[in-house]
Amino acid sequence: MIKTGEPRSLGVPSSEARLHFDTELQELGGGPRRRLLMVDDDPAFELSFYCGTCPLLFRRLETAREKLSLQSMQERLTGALDDPDDGGVIDAYGALLAEGEYLPLLLSVEPRLIIPGKEGDYFSGEQVTTWGIDQFWGLPEYPHTPYYRTFETAVDADAHLYEFVVPMVPPTWNERERVKEYVALMGQGTVPTAVAISTLDVCQPSLGLGDDPSVHWGLTHFLLDGHHKLEAAATAGRPVLLLSLLTLGESLAGAEDCARLPALRARPRSARATGT
């Protein structure tokens, strides 16, 4: 299930936002510019590089310690949200974000918890198949966080869409009793709603790096609200709704790519066929 709202101008000046995107030099005197997701002015995640040929990346940093859930929205989000343009919810969470254009997407997701380096890990699986291992470290990229895989589908013969939900803090930080409460609610048929700010990064490898030189469309949802809900859904094998506020100005994707996303997300789920 996917419902799409209209693009909206949301947010407050970057200096006042709890969450915004930024860049910084990796080292004094030069070096590649890091693309960062900032929370309370601290770097929370390092993201894919701007070059467009580097691998997809979301890497949790040491200063990522804060959730951004809103107590005033908890009751409203305990069940299913009907409309991606729900003004109250969007305006409340939009006030946490830096000024920009955002596309609201209401998605049904069935999360699967992934531990880096273990079964199902995108970074040591599909990404290595396309880019190979990191040439400096001799290892796959490492995100420094568990995360959830929720969906993937073909864009075309040479490109594939991969979707991730990334918690701001690890699931091990969640309160066990709250997770159990959501598992019980889901067992009774409740479908709760989580909220995320999302990026679409389209990454195309240089030739000759891996066995399957395909283009990766990475739809990455960074959780603002719903850490306990996602873990409960993964535990119980149940769906949750995800209200995604897709940033149009900070994604590594053109306007045409972002416009295609709702139709792609509505396609049947399918894994990448590499022929290997």
End-to-end separation: 31 Å
Number of helices: 6
Share of helix among residues? 10-25%
Low-confidence stretches: none
Query: What percent strand?
Result: 25-35%
Using the alpha-carbon principal axes, give the shape: globular
Biggest sheet layout: 9 strands, mixed
Structural class: alpha+beta
Instruction: Tell me, rounded to a whole number, the average pLDDT.
Output: 91
Q: Tell me the total number of β-strands.
A: 13
Mind telling me the C-alpha Rg?
18 Å
- Summarize the helix and strand pattern as letters: EEEEEEHHEEHEEHEEHEH
Assembly form of the protein: single chain
Give the key terms.
276 residues; alpha+beta; nine-stranded mixed β-sheet; four-stranded antiparallel β-sheet; 13 strands
Please give the structural blueprint.
Blueprint: E1 2-4, E2 8-10, E3 19-27, E4 30-39, E5 42-47, E6 58-60, H1 74-77, H2 87-94, E7 100-109, E8 112-114, H3 126-131, E9 147-156, E10 159-166, H4 176-187, E11 193-203, E12 215-225, H5 227-236, E13 240-247, H6 255-265
Parallel strand pairs: 10-12, 11-13
Antiparallel strand pairs: 1-7, 2-7, 3-4, 4-5, 5-6, 7-13, 8-9, 9-10, 11-12
